[in-house]
Specification:
0% strand, single chain, 132 residues
Length: 132
């Protein structure tokens, strides 16, 4: 029983490390987790605003509400008290969902719902590898 639990835990940690290495290797030039993490408050407001937009498909809005629920939940894949990678799971999951959702909303809709600076939106689009 304990060995099975240890194997499962080691598998999850290994998969997470592989994901982090892949994200680091394929990140846009000059992007760091810190620079993306600074955008998190504005990105959360973008998620909330997009989730309330009736013009977006219902499935898209549901995925946004699920993302908000995950981010509000105190239990994370990697606890937030672990330096650097503690917030990395929030950043990674937010970026994956945002990339999917923001593709559904064109650039004008993104701009209309963005509450941050234009430079912040440009950084987010670059981090998500979206056309401007």
């Amino acid at each position: 029983m304990i060995s099975t639990l240890l194997i499962a835990l080691a598998s999850v940690v290994a998969a997470w490390l592989i994901l982090l290495v892949a994200l680091f290797a394929f990140r846009p030039d000059g992007m760091t987790v810190t620079s993306v993490a600074r955008l998190l408050p504005d990105a959360l407001r973008l998620v909330r605003n997009l989730a309330r937009d009736p013009a977006l498909p219902r499935s898209t809005r549901v995925s946004l509400w699920l993302l908000l629920a995950y981010l509000a939940c105190p239990i994370d894949l990697v606890p937030d008290f672990i330096p650097v990678i503690g917030i990395a799971d929030d950043v990674i999951i937010t970026s994956l969902v945002l990339r999917h959702v923001v593709k559904q909303a064109n650039a004008d809709v993104r701009r209309a719902h963005w509450t941050g600076t234009p430079e912040g939106l440009a950084t987010l689009e670059r981090a998500l590898r979206l056309p401007r």
